[in-house]
Amino acid sequence: MTQTSTQDTPVAADPVTPNLAHTNMVGFRTIIIREFSRIIRIWGQTIVPPAITATLYFVIFGSLIGSRIGDMGGYTYIQYIAPGLIMMSVITNSYGNVVSSFFGAKFGKHIEELLVSPLPNWLIVAGYVCGGILRGLVVGGVVTIITLIFTHLHVYNVGVVISAVLLSSIVFSLMGMINAIFAKNFDQISFIPTFVLTPLTYLGGVFYTISLLPHWAQTISHANPILYMVNAFRFGFLGVSDVNVGFAYSIMIGAAVVLYVACVWLLQKGVGTRE
Amino acid sequence: MKALSFRGLTKTYKNGVQALKGIDLDVEEGDFFALLGPNGAGKTTAIGIVTSLVNKTGGKVEVFGHDIDTQLAVAKSCIGLVPQEINFNQFETVTTILINQAGFYGIPRKVAHERLEKYLNALQLWEKRNAVSRSLSGGMKRRLMIARALMHEPRLLILDEPTAGVDIEVRRTMWTFMRDINAAGTTIILTTHYLEEAENLCRHVAIIDKGRIIENDRMSRVLRKLQTEVFVFNLRNPIAAAPALPDYQVVMPDDHTLEIEVSKDQNLNDIFSRLSAAGIEVLSMRNKSNRLEELFMRLVEQKPAATA
User: Fold this and answer.
1) Based on the domain organization, do B235 and B118 belong to the same domain?
2) Whether the Cβ atoms of residue A180 and residue A128 lie closer than 8 Å to each other
3) Which residue of A214, B103, B282, B304 sits 20 to 30 Å from the alpha carbon of A274, by its own alpha carbon?
């Protein structure tokens, strides 16, 4: 390395109080762009696997087995499970995006880039959640396209479809963030998806209506938050639901608010991120 | 104006370790300030508190008059940090890292691209702008962290061992760059284990040990406090035994070398005269250690070699 150029000597910035609203706006946009770039950069991990999984579900449960099951809720079995499969991919990918991105940043210490910046904690959480939503929507979109290859998708209420998918994505992004905040190693970020998220998703009415279950199992199913998300989403497509859709929205909005406040509080306290 | 001010700053970790025991410190705007201390002395903890990576236990911190308890975002926007450990995303390119960093401080992309070019050229990394950061050499990674810290053109640049593990050529180039940005008005706080680096660059120095400031003054005044220095004399011919030099402490590490401790009220002419009289020819002479290093060691080891 030779002598440093002196003609480009940096100059200290003028001592002007920064416009924090502008800083926050640019910072928020930067986090979102960074998260979206990450999703695209590692598309082999983020987009392809859920597409393959969804295809297998449609081939096996929709075409092969589904054709022998008969109607469910007044629709063919493949039409009935389609919204649930789309929602399942949105939930798992929103969660997976935030948990892996935030924990990866913690592990590689580049989370410090954000922690030392003037961006407030509420905005950092919002930025990561938007990343989770983006991945949920991208993957949900890909799975929807795959669905259309196998069956016709009836849309009963587009507003419910969009709001249910957004709220579910927000809730699971925030859950992914809390997992990442507390995680100390990679085992701990795979534990929750494997042992909690996957069972809850499979038992959340993706593949069946809970009216098929015995009464006690129906009661237990009502304690599963994913049941409300899947059914609200399914209501948007088919107009049928195992639960009260208004109550489902209360659950989703309530969970989103509580989890968002919890994430901001945890960052503020420095749990898992600051000494 | 004070770029940085600590008052009664304390930090006690959950395991009970008291890393900072109520330190007071002021760094004036425009200064080049060395914050020195042995490993575990509390330097990185203090820096961590300023940059909000560590929660303080007590005391007050102000950055350009902005209290970090009430105006944290404004205080943080004044600071650029080059941490001790590599902490950028190793899977991103140099350009992506710098543009994102600028964005976190509210710098629009167009301005960020202009600054990126300026700092990558100044730090001789422009050719690597599209390289994935993990492919850079150790010295390049250190320079990338400096470029990253400068993207929002901070008024206070904190360099936590910026030249650790960097070869001497790159280190000297980085010194030139640091002098340039300090001359342009950026206040710099430097922590380093290369005390030659601190002595060459910094105008003020504070030494922290076991969570307390044990020295804090102008570099020149601190160095004058050194009461004795050890000089190494390389001899032309071998000698059988160390010469008797009353009033001096003489050590003979080998038959071609003498180490003589000289106090402030003694002089080298006297030593040379006595060595000549003893028939000993001196080929060359040097300080055994850098002066700041000597003082540092004596202060930390609490040897009576420095004035109060």
Assistant:
1) no
2) no
3) B103
Look up the domain containing B169 and give its range: 2-223
* A20 to B73: CB separation less than 8 angstroms, yes or no: yes
Measured in whole angstroms, the distance separating CA B284 from the mean position of its chain's CA atoms is 29
- Check residues B24 and A17 and name the one with the higher pLDDT: B24
- Rounded to the nearest 10 degrees, the angle between the axes of helix A158-182 and helix A121-150 is 130
| Domain assignments of chain A as residue spans, ordered by start | 24-269
A246 touches chain B (CB under 8 A): no
Which run of H or E residues covers position B208?
Answer: strand B204-209
A contact residues 42-71, partner B, Cβ 8 Å cutoff: none
The pair of structure tokens assigned to B179 is 């002098």
What is the rounded distance in angstroms from the CA atom of residue B177 to the CA atom of residue B146? 10
**Stretch among A110-124, A182-196, B164-178 having the lowest mean pLDDT:** B164-178
Instruction: Flag if A274 and B181 touch (Cβ within 8 Å).
Output: no
Query: Looking at beta carbons, which residues of chain B come within 8 Å of A20?
Result: 73-74, 77, 106
ipTM of the complex: 0.87
Q: Which residue of A has its CA nearest to B85?
A: A109
- Chain A CB contacts of B181 under 8 Å are 9-10, 12
- Map residue B239 onto helix, strand or coil: coil
Closest CA to B258 of B278, B279, B282: B282
Of the candidates B223, B246, B279, which is a domain's last residue? B223
Domain total of chain B = 2
Of B52, B77, B103, the CB nearest to A26: B103
Per residue in B16-60, pLDDT (tens digit) is 999 999 999 999 999 999 999 888 889 999 999 999 999 999 999
State whether residue A45 is helix, strand or coil: helix
Residue B281: is it exposed, middle or buried by C-beta count within 10 angstroms (0-12/13-18/19+)? exposed
Chains A–B, number of C-beta pairs less than 8 Å apart: 149
Together in a domain, B22 and B112? yes
Question: Nearest CA of chain A to the CA of B259: how many Å?
Answer: 36
> Do residues B206 and B255 both lie within one domain?
no
Q: Do B153 and A118 touch (CB under 8 A)?
A: no
Does the beta-carbon distance from B105 to A25 stay under 8 Å? no
Tell me how long chain B is: 308
Chain-chain contact of A117 with B104 (C-beta, under 8 angstroms): yes
pTM of the shown model: 0.86
